[in-house]
Amino acid sequence: MLTGKQKRFLRAEAHHLTPIFQVGKGGVNENMVKQIAEALEVRELMKISVLQNCEFDRHEVAEELAKGAKAELVQVIGSTIVLYKESKENKRIVLPKTK
């Protein structure tokens, strides 16, 4: 689990990112979760946007994606979801230490 300090750090890191996945009318599916998990292995931190036509609540979508991709939900702001997952091979982000 991430601490508040780590989440703040990740929110700042994610600020300049553009969403690379979109959740639309069909909501979350297995293939999407798989692709997001793979992209997280490469990037560690990513934004996903929830489109207007999505029939599901953005918080539910965020929870589902985080759980499916075994990632940490950093934040849901507007229609944007920020996910973080520490990479095994491509570790780039160094989180602030917890006391």
Automatic annotation (TrEMBL):
<dbReference type="Pfam" id="PF01985">
    <property type="entry name" value="CRS1_YhbY"/>
</dbReference>
<dbReference type="InterPro" id="IPR051925">
    <property type="entry name" value="RNA-binding_domain"/>
</dbReference>
<dbReference type="InterPro" id="IPR017924">
    <property type="entry name" value="RNA-binding_YhbY"/>
</dbReference>
<feature type="domain" description="CRM">
    <location>
        <begin position="1"/>
        <end position="96"/>
    </location>
</feature>
<keyword id="KW-0694">RNA-binding</keyword>
<protein>
    <submittedName>
        <fullName>Ribosome assembly RNA-binding protein YhbY</fullName>
    </submittedName>
</protein>
<dbReference type="InterPro" id="IPR001890">
    <property type="entry name" value="RNA-binding_CRM"/>
</dbReference>
<dbReference type="InterPro" id="IPR035920">
    <property type="entry name" value="YhbY-like_sf"/>
</dbReference>
